[in-house]
Fold each of these.
Amino acid sequence: MSYKYSKKKILILGIGLTGISCINFFLKRGAMPKIIDESNKPYYLDKIPKNIQYKLGSLEKKWILESDLIIISPGVSSFKPILIEARMLGIEIISDIELFSREAKSPIISITGTNGKSTVSTMVKKISENLGYKVYLGGNIGFPALDMLEKKSDLYILELSSFQLENIFSLQSKIAAVLNIKEDHLDRYPGGFKQYKKTKLSIYKNSEICLVNAKEKNYFFKKSCKKCITFGTNDSDYYIDNIQDKVFLYCKETKILDISKTSLYGYQNYENALVSLAISDAMCFPRDKAIDVLSNFSSLPHRFQIVHKRNNISWINDSKSTNIDSTKAALKNINTKGTIWLLLGGDKKSADFNILKNYLEKLKIKVYCFGKDGMNIAKIFQKKSIYVQNLKDAMTLISKEVRSGDIVLLSPGCSSKDQFKNFEERGNLFITLSKELS
């Protein structure tokens, strides 16, 4: 189907990288969009071409209701009353990923999940490149999806958040994978976890091959795709098993990778590698090439990354941890007789940190809580926790008490947006301070 945009009244919501990519997309197709941002000082305001009309500070009702087509950025909630009203009036509301899906000519691998999606997406990209494919990774990581259309490609990889999946209708993936679904972003969804889960699962619609986590079997229906591949449990197509204290990745009953011969650390990364192998096999890539890439793969920045080690004290940057489950996964990866100094806090997005209470009580741990919801989180862990205003204050206090054999872990379980531009800025501050304070 060929889509014409030149005669439509087009409105873009959000002046971020996504919004700028949407402006460029429409200008190249002869359309002149308008754009709105709810911030009074959006970061990329200077990137807007001079001939584009824009409004700042709030959603302009008149502009919204007179539009034919609205492109909504991931940071803008689809459930705002004015957007619900627009839908009821028949105004089309879509995402940049929907625009991309309408135009893409190369096969698409789509990956989502509460945790691990950036790592899996990067692993698959590296495997594809090792085989000589021209491949681009975009969406929630890498390029804005629409920018990838300008590049000659054999394969697209989309890393998709639930926010990006809210307004997609034409996506037809060669392979779609949902890595896991844990409680997250509950402040975004009026229908709570059930609605968040449904949004994640929408990635399977119209997909040729669906990669399914068998540990979360209650959420999947095989009618969603033509072919289903499972992972995660010992009766799955792909699984992880231990033999005499060694960890191996299996396909069916065939041992395919000895983890001890890789640079991978932590169960979450073992499972990420497992899924990447499953995707590689489904694409009919030579397995030895995939194994070669995974054997030499190092953790992505800000994802359980040992950034400093001195006086037998390890400082681990897991700033990408923005939900409770990712914090729990990080703690499970730690094996020490010393004390764990956990840095927790930020914007908890309505999550219930009581879930962690029983787990933390079993550990030799001290919890330093900071940021917008730090005080409320600290109250949950009582004797094991202390509240401080910010990350620097917390690390300064920890540096005075930490001892040989201890581990300092930044795994906040919260969004960074209360005190930082993004999780990268939060992680970079942790790296700088860990070296200065130790």
Amino acid sequence: AEGELVGGFNTEYSSLKFAMFMLAEYVNMVTVSAVASTLFLGGWRAPWPISTFWEGANHGWWPMLWIIVKIQLLLFFFIWLRGTLPRLRYDQFMKLGWKILIPVSLVWLVMVASVRALRNEGYDFAKVVLYVGAPIAALLLLALVWDLLRKKPAEAEPAPPAAFDPMAGGYPVPPLPGQELPPVPRRRSRAPQLQDALNGADHTEGS
């Protein structure tokens, strides 16, 4: 939520300078979308179903259309995700990156290198899937079985909280969460005494 915080450019710049700061973020999004389209989505080439049955899909002006469409789709995904995803804490992003994305990317790198090496050696598609997919499936199965069979330690029952004394340190202190103040003894109601006094005043005025 950095864009929601009050920063230097929010208070010191206005007009076109402020617009340039805000547009720089979207320029970065366009750059990242272009790089991702080139590296992961085939770049200027036509998508997979179209390129199989249309030979002219990668000639003329069509490559420019394909790269623009891919960039626009990634930009739509960026803005859509930004507008709908709840705010995440920084430690959650770090946990996602270090514990999930980096291990997955390393496994993916080893898998792609193994596939390329087996294809260069002349293995057919079925054997490549068997040699690469079988170890990964076995590891996932072992991880699932380990998670199911692992015994979680029994949680010890919490000890009952001690009675709270608001004047224990010599000064009145408020109770912590989970603590309760002791009941305050109520004084005897003075309503009957007041009623008797009023009744006596009425008798005096009447006499």
Amino acid sequence: MTTYSRRRRGVPEARGRAGTARASFDYARIGRSSARRRARGMTSGEAAAALEDAELRAHLDRRDESAFDDGGRREAEFAEWRRIVQLLAATGGVYDPDTDPVVQEELAEDRRREEAEQQHRQEQRQLADRADDLLTLAGAGRLDRTVASRPGDEAARALLDDYDYRVPAVDDWLAHALATHRGHYADPDTRTAAATLLPAPVRAHAALLAALARTGAPADDSELEFVGRLAQADPDATAALAAWLNTRATPGSLGGHDLPSS
């Protein structure tokens, strides 16, 4: 593994990236909820009268344009009143949101959405913890081949852009794991997916290490430390060199200093 200078930047902890954006108000939902709350216990006729009264008040309010700048709340409220009137005309009785199939389906969808959001937050926390672990190991000089890569490491790496001096060591570790098929990179499909998930320098680094290994140079050789610098400086050129080696070099040719000429 490469040794890096211990220069540190002032950056927040990785787990801070797992936060979620503040939810915005759903004015249409507020309007529907208002209609349902007021309609509880009403008959079809009472709900129709309440709708007429609400529409009349809205017509009178039209003289004040600011009264209609409500994000669609009022229109959603009127539409819900109309739906409730139609529901009661078909079913009879009084309105009860607790037995309204539309309302119950919305509540079920809310529960499914909340469960999905909770799962997403948990996954983000796990990724942030993994990113912290990799940085800690890198800072201690213990991020080497004994640490197995695992599913989600690509996403954990994505949290580390522009963090501090330890990130290049994490990139080195990922590139070596990918080149040598260690950890979860033993699976070919996972290696293929990494081509779209890992940063270009990491992919180029791994490609050149693997290409050099085919010539007889071990991918974990400390003398190949320069490969990481090449990949960071010019990922495209590094990947092109790897492709050239894959088509032109023969097994063991590097060790015998006998690379084919162009």
